[in-house]
Amino acid sequence: MALATRTQHAQHPQHPPSLLGSLWRSTVGKKAVMAVTGLIMLAYLVAHMIGNLKIFFGPGEFDHYAHWLRTIGGPVLHYEWFLWILRVVLVAAVVLHGVAAYQLSRRDLAARPVKYARPRARTSYATRTMRWGGVILGLFVVWHILDLTTLTVNPNAQHGHPYANVVASFDRWYVAAFYIAAMLALGLHIRHGFWSAAQTLGANSPRRDRAFKAAANALAALLTVGFVSVPVAVLTGIVS
Amino acid sequence: MKFTLRVWRQRDAAAAGAMTTYEVDGVSADMSFLEMLDHLNERLILSGDTPVAFDHDCREGICGACGVVINGQAHGPERTTACQLHMRHFRDGDTIDVEPWRAEAFPVVRDLVVDRSAFDRVIASGGYVSVPTGSAPEAHATPVPKAAADLAFDHAACIGCGACVAACPNGSAMLFTAAKVVHLNALPQGAPERESRVLDMVDTMDAQGFGGCTNTGECATACPKGIPLSAIGTLNREYLRATVKGRGNRD
Amino acid sequence: MTDYTAYGVGDPVADTKAPDGPIAERWDRRRFEAKLVNPANRRKHTVIVVGTGLAGGAAGATLAEQGYRVVQFCYQDSPRRAHSIAAQGGINAAKNYRNDGDSVHRLFYDTVKGGDFRARESNVHRLAQISLQIIDQCVAQGVPFAREYGGLLDTRSFGGVQVSRTFYARGQTGQQLLLGAYQALSRQIDAGTVEMHPRTEMLDLVVVDGRARGVVARDLVTGRVDTYFADAVVLASGGYGNVFYLSTNAKNSNATAVWRAHRRGALFANPCFTQIHPTCIPRSGDHQSKLTLMSESLRNDGRIWVPVAKGDTRPPNEIPEDERDYYLERMYPSFGNLVPRDIASRAAKNVCDEGRGVGPGGQGVYLDFADAIRRMGRAAVDAKYGNLFEMYERITAEDPYQVPMRIYPAIHYTMGGLWVDYDLQTTVPGLFAIGEANFSDHGANRLGASALMQGLADGYFVLPATINDYLARHPHDEVLADHPAAVAVVAEVTARLDRLLAVDGDRTPDSFHRELGELLWDECGMARNEAGLRKALGRIPELREEFWRRVKVPGTGAELNQSLEKANRIVDYLELAELTCLDALHRTESCGGHFREESQTPDGEAARRDELFSYTAAWEFTGTGRPPVLHKEDLVFEHVHPTQRSYT
To answer: Which of A1, B1, B187, C1 is 20 to 30 Å from the Cα of A35, by its Cα?
Structure first.
């Protein structure tokens, strides 16, 4: 009666469609997708922030850097191709990250429909603000592209003069304030997100936990300070 | 001691429930929280009222039957089970809110009693080693490094009370599932089913309507047995490893 | 006036299943002689298992693996919560990994002797043989036993035996073994071979044409009372320690399944053999709902004492050394604080009866670690007993590093239970009892770390091998749901529940349970005498009458009603308590956990009277309040010669 001792699970397809497909089916897998896409975006942000700092060396160097970005990969890649590849990857990351977050959030809210009479939140502010912080960041990215890439909402801007465009944008105090607020939200998001990604990808362990938390804090602080330094410099006239 | 209790009363799964206020007098500081509820119930019975239903059994913190949310905290202010929480941890005259575990996957049965059978289904889908009685090799045939045995034990200590789910803002059962996966996957005896176990258990966990993990850590803080949050990291690793390695090879 | 101490004497009862011949070959022989069920036919047979503890969980999983259809019940919300989970110490097995002279024969010998020569040799020998396989099975399941640095299993010596044969998983051995059985059972539930009914309590047994054919059980959530039919019924519902109200048993552990089976014809053996554990945390007041045990290992380094003077209310640390009475060390100089459980318990009771007890109500003695801390250092004490100290402090709010612990004995285990033969079958054909629910193996006293061994032996190995014989001799035939026997049982069960709800008196169910428990503890607890037992036997029928007149059970039967559950269990306790006292009264000897004050040696030790009582007392039910009939099973000792214990 060997059969009687065997346990079978009919609910699984024998051949899930793909790695991404099988990951997408479960909460754990979907979180892994979020972690990986989050890390891709984080890596991009680090490069972006370092690039931003070139603004402190004047319009010549900054504009030259902006032009160089379009020539990466050449002559193999055509002008701006690298940038477009990067943009496609980033859009895919943003979409996957956002859709996964949306789907998981809906599931999470449905899993705990009733609140306690006397709720006791003991988790950090960063953890509790992941969802709304994420939404704010999403909206910010849209505005940010309209402001400094397509220049749609930046009336004084001209294509090909990024340094001047940045200054023109941040000269409006409310734009700078919005930018700074968004960067603070980014810091919080990364503070929980980086450690969370390590946990989600199974890279964490009791021994490494402190290191990951420290790294998350350092990354969050570094990116926030780096990004915020630009509008502050514009507002204070250091960059003009 | 004297307390004002606000207790969730709900006649059955279909009925609407509400917080109901009771004054409880004559409570001894040495009473456990459940003995305080016993004390309330004795009075309710004699006054023709319906006593408060709550799950409990061993009353020594090991069976995992008891569990209520006290002032918004699963099992109350101490890191232990409700049966091992004593009234000396409250101030005379306090108002205490008592609610059932709240999670979609744990529907209320009556008052403070919830249905945790979803946990049993998670275990049944893979939380075991397939070893029919009589087929075991001699116990010393496979030495287990002490570190692995200790790691397994630390996670096997889970009592299945559900505090992790109750404390999680997402009603997630990750810590519970992780505890069993880490326990069995840490041992050589669990190795043959290492991939199918984690894949099946996570699938079942999701199918039962538990939420996902957002790494808030509330579960590990509430766990009366100290199952560490790192268990979830290991579960994630095991799951990803199994997905990459075991895709298409299950069962 | 009715004489509540009367009983009839019926024909002797004999175990016809144990083969004769060399004791070491009996189990093999029985397995060979037992008929088998063709694997293809097994799925036609349904077996009901009541309870999911070590015995029930193991049996359900194993029978399902063999191909039987299993229908299983537990009153808990999950099969993982059965009270086996609370066992701390460990599990014995004659592996002899330590090379310290252990063997199957030594474990057999120790168990028979420890049971004070009131157990059946054949059964105990089989238990010792099977102990080897249990460890193999549990290790393979992933039970995280303690291990040494080399990766091999660690063992310790336990309960005063001279070999290290106790395997353990920190202080949670019961939990880990139970989870192993639960997981094996869960695998079968998932495979569809076990139909699990949690939150469902067996309330009666259905006997059709003299054979057990099913149970009547109540769904505790909906209140629905249903009949479940089967080809055989296995009771694994645990012991009856809760008849004492305060015990170390789980609050809902109860005797209803075994008592209902007894009422339907199963003999009940040795109910007065109850075990008291010496190191429990004393009660802190009338609100106390249960007692918590602390591992006996505390006595290895703690010193037990009370003040020399009666009514000494000074804090312990202010009582000078010469005003303390380390009474165990004084009375038993060679064993000191390590005397067996029953002796330690009785001595504690005696000093408390003298008015020298400590703590609230004077029901406690000190267990002092001051010397151990001085000798070993705080760190070493912490490493050895840290978790126990922590548990003690959580419950009592006293720090055992600063003030001595207070301990008092408590009811902990019941050796008595349904009478079974070598096949673990009761006197009702087709009804089996395993684990603590039966009476076998431990005699009058159970050794530490042997309960887990017996539960798993019965569940994994004995029952699955012996039940075949019964099933093979009784080919499956359908019982119809409207069979008059089944309908009558359902009507009886329902009527009893309705009657409980209808009384609408002025006392809570718990108040009766507590009163019964106190009576039993006082008169049929650690020490028993004729006058006290007669008093109890006079009082119990009064209490029963009062119960049916004054109990108040709120609510209805068609809902989750925990008061109704309690009241229904108390009905059975009120009858079982009577039989327990009667059994204790009739056995005018002291043996193991049963101490009759009239039967002691000049220095106060238990005196067995083998010439009169070398038998198992199996009682037959004749009606509530009517004299039961005693059937004796003579005990024959061919391999272990009865001797009087001496620990002085």
So the answer is: B187
